[in-house]
Amino acid sequence: MQNPQFQTAPEPKRLDWTTMVVPFLLIIILCLCFLAAPDASKAVLENLRSFLGENFGVGYLAIGLGIFLLSIYIAFSRYGTIRLGKPDEKPLYSNFAWGSMMFTSGLAADILFYSLCEWVLYANDPHLAEMGSIQDWASTYPLFHWGPIPWSFYVVLAAAFGFMLHVRGCHKQKYSEACRPILGKHTDGLAGTLIDLMAVFALLAGTTTTFTLATPLMSQIVSELFGFSDTRLITIAILAVTCLVYTVSVVSGMKGIQKLAASCVYLFFALLAYVLLFGGEARYIIETGFSSIGNLVQNFIGLSTYTDPQRTTSFPQTWTMFYWAYWMVWCVAAPFFIGTISRGRTIRQTILGGYVFGLGGTFVSFIILGNYSLGLQVFGKLDVMGLYAASGDLYSTITAIIRTLPLAPMVLVLLAAAMIAFYATSFDAIVLVASAYSYKNLTSEDEPHMAIKTFWSLSLILLPMVLIFSDNSMANLQTVSIIAAFPIAFIILLIVAAFFKDAKKYLSSYHGI
């Protein structure tokens, strides 16, 4: 039950103004720099990103594979028996409610956007020719880049944060607090402040660009349906509607978020079912999906450790390292939310449940939507690769794919509704995490005040609206978030080490193990 002290207006002394304001101001300053000197800022950021990828890229790959292997060890070791809460506590949410909130909080509308088109981005890459055929690998790599390793970041950190909140009863919902078993008193000093500043900065940079990634597709859908010109004003209107939906939801508390997540799941699976059953490619979709999963399992270690040391194609630098870095940035928000809603479950249930719901929903999306569009190419029904090569526009390519379905306008409406629901549910989680960061102390039973949640709801939408007017600024800010993943990677390792130290102490004290 929410603590009454948070029902009234938040007292200024309760707020952590440094963590709340400084990262936000830094993002504003960066945006102004991007708008004033787009070419120069882009050159500097691209050089820095290239330097990190070329010289430290193997570190991203090693951390990704290491965290995945650790997740399996934690789940089936004695650490997996720890219950996130009291020893006899029951789960806070039903399996469906928990799974739907977990799945939708970890993935924005990007999953629908990329499910329909990601294989196109790989299809002409020389690395696929080295590996084999487009049929075999264009459908496998999306499962790899959105699969076990990305979700392992989420579930391992969710276990650490859940342990911190529900077992140790910490009153600070911050990255730095998860490092306390190792940092000790330094958590309350400069070291802890720097960790939290980097975390919130990465969160803002990552979410701002994510918001602007798929909204142009929704704008194009509106233009397709109503004949409007595809303008920035339509995109801004869509952002405003999305903001309204998730603001109403997050202000109404966890019940609102739970209902929105359930609605998102229903829309999501309705879209997938329609494409599978009425797209005319069901056999191909299922068989290609089954083969791609087998291909992934058989080659998982090789894919996870491939570095292209001779730089024949630079595929891992361009794609795999990029994805691992971007997922690390998103680890600032999603695992905190997953850890919060996992109260009453064991760490084993949290990790394995995360894989079941997270991987299950992700794989089904890429298998059905991705293989439908791949089937159009393979069987000569639509030259998807040719359309993208000619226009360089993924948004028009996706709408062309949708037009091949029966009752295409209805599918476009369903796609747009599902994307808005995905954005709203994922940003609900982000708003809650950012709001919790705004407090010096906040228990897991308390929710941030409505005013703080509203502040972050509006803040997260204003920057994307500004960046809509500059494509270079969006690309630059995305590069900033990738660069920010470099220090975040070390913080993730620190959190994992702190979890093992504290959990081992807990097991020894309470179970004599």
TrEMBL record:
<dbReference type="Pfam" id="PF02028">
    <property type="entry name" value="BCCT"/>
</dbReference>
<dbReference type="GO" id="GO:0022857">
    <property type="term" value="F:transmembrane transporter activity"/>
</dbReference>
<feature type="transmembrane region" description="Helical">
    <location>
        <begin position="451"/>
        <end position="470"/>
    </location>
</feature>
<keyword id="KW-0472">Membrane</keyword>
<feature type="transmembrane region" description="Helical">
    <location>
        <begin position="96"/>
        <end position="116"/>
    </location>
</feature>
<protein>
    <submittedName>
        <fullName>BCCT family transporter</fullName>
    </submittedName>
</protein>
<feature type="transmembrane region" description="Helical">
    <location>
        <begin position="482"/>
        <end position="500"/>
    </location>
</feature>
<keyword id="KW-0812">Transmembrane</keyword>
<dbReference type="InterPro" id="IPR000060">
    <property type="entry name" value="BCCT_transptr"/>
</dbReference>
<feature type="transmembrane region" description="Helical">
    <location>
        <begin position="233"/>
        <end position="252"/>
    </location>
</feature>
<keyword id="KW-1133">Transmembrane helix</keyword>
<feature type="transmembrane region" description="Helical">
    <location>
        <begin position="264"/>
        <end position="286"/>
    </location>
</feature>
<dbReference type="GO" id="GO:0005886">
    <property type="term" value="C:plasma membrane"/>
</dbReference>
<comment type="similarity">
    <text>Belongs to the BCCT transporter (TC 2.A.15) family.</text>
</comment>
<feature type="transmembrane region" description="Helical">
    <location>
        <begin position="321"/>
        <end position="340"/>
    </location>
</feature>
<feature type="transmembrane region" description="Helical">
    <location>
        <begin position="20"/>
        <end position="37"/>
    </location>
</feature>
<feature type="transmembrane region" description="Helical">
    <location>
        <begin position="57"/>
        <end position="76"/>
    </location>
</feature>
<feature type="transmembrane region" description="Helical">
    <location>
        <begin position="352"/>
        <end position="374"/>
    </location>
</feature>
<feature type="transmembrane region" description="Helical">
    <location>
        <begin position="151"/>
        <end position="169"/>
    </location>
</feature>
<feature type="transmembrane region" description="Helical">
    <location>
        <begin position="412"/>
        <end position="439"/>
    </location>
</feature>
<feature type="transmembrane region" description="Helical">
    <location>
        <begin position="190"/>
        <end position="213"/>
    </location>
</feature>
<keyword id="KW-0813">Transport</keyword>
<keyword id="KW-1003">Cell membrane</keyword>
